[in-house]
Write a structure and sequence with these properties.
Layout (H helix, E strand, L loop, with lengths): L2 H18 L4 H6 L11 H8 L7 H8 L19 H11 L2 H7 L65 E3 L2 E4 L3 H12 L4 E4 L16 E2 L4 H5 L6 H11 L6 H20 L6 E3 L9 E3 L6 H15 L3 E3 L2 E8 L5 E8 L3 E6 L2 E4 L8 H7 L17 H7 L5 E2 L4 E8 L8 H5 L3 E3 L13 H9 L6 E6 H6 L3 H6 L4 E3 L2 H8 L3 H17 L19 E13 L2 E2 L6 E3 L5 E7 L16 H19 L2
Helix pairs in contact: 1-3, 7-11, 7-20, 9-10, 10-20, 18-19
This protein binds flavin-adenine dinucleotide.
Flavin-adenine dinucleotide (FAD) binds next to helix 7, strand 8, helix 13 and helix 20.
Length: 613
């Protein structure tokens, strides 16, 4: 077919559509200053049908004739921020994500991952270079059709919206900012009280850091512990948490965390998310680390269950929707939010209450380094949207903050993928080796000492060397192989070559280590516990380095999850829970306590916000 004819056809068709899909009554009723401008006027259509924009996915489809015109991908002239219409079109031709997953099976499948279901347009964009969302966190060799190598910048300075004017105003009962476990739990709780809830998520996918949690959730006195005769109770959990936090925690909040933890496990069971598997966690007197009964990772499991429930119960969940400002009245009470929608621009939602469930700031290195200069330039395990927006939003309406400089680093994150390498790998027999092929520390010492030691090595990283027994005994090693992050050799010579480190040094290090295992004494670094000698038949190594993992500090809240201002008063209409708040963990968080916090304080925030008069 003649090219000119196609373009003409597109223009004519889009004109017809534009006229047919005039803005609905509802839209005009609430429309404030600028009315929605159709994106399908002839001029726009033309600019999207040829030239630079046509080089991307839309152009590929249109040139091949697989999509005839703009309406093949756009069902209306108004593009909703969640891009639901467009994705329905992709799916109508290509099938669902699960269908796609069958065509791209492999070790690493872009269409099937721990992130669960998401929009096609999270990765495949229409008019810009596509980019796989996985590459925000992993260094995969993952090409995508019409793809580009541009790096996404997720940080944005929210102060520029201080005087922004909304193009329209909506109304609801409760706005929840963020779709991690805290936000979902708060939303489900408020919905159960008959409230209307809008959930806003700035990223193209839901889930936050919560969805990445691999371990478990701490709870004391649960029926699952009782069934195993574990004599744990809320008082012991309270004491462990205070001790772990070096006693600077807010004891009132810790009391709630401990007392409510068993109820939170029951609440999860009531929404079909049973955590019946129990393990021992760091800093705990008894096993209280609860994971899915199936043995799966806790984050993806909870996220999927919470999402399912929130949708069933009728929340309006919007992705690509960033809260950029809190709206206040003359008394300083919070009365709503300003949202920047990816397509719809800046709009306002008036609400009786706003719940900040926006997470921490671990991925905002500038902010982290302002509190902990030694963490400057250190990588993070956090999802890239973890930029501390909630801190900015809260403090801009007068909120107080606590413990901001308390930031947790984990000594061993896999280089190239944000997988926190568990101590179990070393405990089962792995050793640290630096680029000179030498050990430099006891592998089983505390996290802060380990972090400092690794950062002093060449390249500010090191290797964990292990063999087949460790591979077999530690389940987590499977992920390292699956991610392609393991270097290996049939001999230490081969492994050293793979790692580009001196083979003689590596062989001497392993030989000396093995003699010390026989003697049962680490004469070099005082490691107190040896599982086994390192003896092959295969030798493996992964590269690890410290990472910024968790922000203990944040907005100050009271026992009702109400945000407190700098004069110690409640800010009416504003609630917060989860990693955006401070006080629960003091100077150091115990593993498993933050998921526990999200469910417990999410429930409280949802309940309190729903009962606000
Ligand atoms: C790799 C990893 C493993 C972990 N493992 C464990 C574990 O085993 N056990 C445990 O207890 N804890 C673990 N943690 C910690 C725990 O997962 C988090 O601290 C917790 O889930 C935080 O939950 P949240 O709901 O407060 O915030 P998040 O889950 O981070 O959710 C916040 C959401 O708000 C969104 N948001 C931010 N700003 C805005 C804005 N302006 N507008 C709209 N949306 C916004 C974010 O994009 C995000 O989706 C782990 C953390 C990581 C990173």
């Amino acid at each position: 077919m003649n090219k000119k004819l196609i373009v003409l056809g597109v223009i004519v068709l889009t004109l017809i559509i534009t006229m047919a899909v005039a803005p609905s009554k509802e839209m005009t009723a609430v429309a404030a200053p600028a009315a929605e401008k159709s994106v399908f006027d002839a001029k726009t259509a033309n600019s999207y049908a040829k030239g630079k924009k046509a080089a991307y996915l839309s152009g590929i489809h249109m040139k091949a004739g697989t999509v005839e015109n703009c309406e093949g991908c756009h069902s209306s002239s108004v593009i909703d921020d969640s891009e639901k219409d467009i994705n329905a079109k992709c799916e109508s031709c290509h099938g669902s994500l699960a269908d796609m997953a069958k065509t791209t099976e492999g070790e690493v499948n872009p269409h099937s991952s721990h992130l669960g279901t998401m929009n096609c347009t999270t990765c495949h964009t229409g008019h810009t270079p596509s980019k796989s969302y996985c590459l925000n966190c992993h260094e995969f060799d993952m090409n995508i059709s019409a793809g580009g190598k541009v790096k996404t910048e997720w940080y944005e300075d929210l102060s520029k919206y201080a005087n922004a004017k909304p193009v329209r105003v909506e109304k609801t009962d409760i706005v929840v900012v963020g779709t991690g476990a805290t936000g979902f739990t708060a939303a489900i709780t408020a919905l159960s009280k008959g409230k209307k809830v809008i959930m806003l998520e700035k990223m193209p996918i839901v889930g936050g850091n919560s969805q990445l949690a691999a371990g478990g959730m701490n709870a004391a006195g649960t029926r699952f512990q009782k069934a195993k005769k574990i004599p744990d109770n809320a008082d012991v959990m309270f004491n462990d948490t205070m001790k772990g936090g070096k006693n600077i925690n807010n004891p009132d909040l810790v009391r709630i965390l401990a007392d409510q933890s068993s109820k939170s496990i029951e609440w999860l069971a009531s929404i079909n998310a049973e955590l019946g598997f129990i393990a021992m966690g760091g800093g705990a007197t008894y096993p209280r680390f609860h994971g899915p009964t199936s043995g799966d990772f806790v984050g993806p499991f909870l996220s999927a269950k919470l999402r399912e429930r929130v949708v069933r119960d009728g929340a309006d969940v919007r992705v690509n929707s960033k809260v950029v400002k809190l709206v206040t009245n003359a008394q300083g009470d919070v009365t709503g939010v300003l949202v920047k929608g990816k397509h719809s621009g800046i709009y306002q939602i008036d609400a009786k209450a706003v719940i900040l469930a926006s997470g921490g700031f671990g991925a905002n290195n500038k902010l982290v380094a302002s509190y902990r200069p030694d963490a400057k330039g250190v990588q993070t395990s956090n999802q890239p949207g973890t930029q501390g927006d909630g801190i900015v939003l809260g403090t801009s309406v007068g909120a107080a903050t606590v413990d901001m400089k308390e930031i947790q680093l984990n000594p061993t994150m896999l280089v190239g993928s944000p997988v926190i390498v568990s101590e179990i790998v070393r405990g089962a027999g792995g050793i640290f080796v630096n680029r000179d092929g030498k050990r430099f520390i006891s592998e089983l010492t505390t996290r802060d000492v380990t972090t400092a030691a690794i950062r002093k090595q060449k390249g500010a990283s090191c290797f964990i060397v292990f063999d087949d027994t460790v591979r077999k005994n530690v389940k987590q090693t499977g992920a390292f192989f699956q991610l392609g992050k393991v270097k290996q050799g049939k001999s230490l010579d081969e492994l050293a070559k793979e790692l580009s480190i001196p083979a003689d040094a590596l062989k001497a290090t392993v030989a000396r280590f093995n003699t010390m295992v026989e003697k049962g004494k680490d004469e070099d670094f005082g490691r107190h516990n040896f599982a086994q000698k390192i003896q092959g038949p295969n030798f493996y190594a992964i590269e690890v380095k410290p990472a910024i993992h968790y922000c203990m500090g944040g907005l100050k809240i009271d026992e009702k999850a109400r945000v407190i201002n700098t004069s110690g008063k409640v800010i009416k209409g504003l609630y917060a829970g989860g990693e955006v708040t401070g006080g629960v963990h003091g100077a150091n968080r115990l593993g498993g306590n933050s998921i526990s916090e999200t469910i417990t304080f999410g429930r409280i925030a949802g309940e309190q916000a729903a009962s606000l008069k």
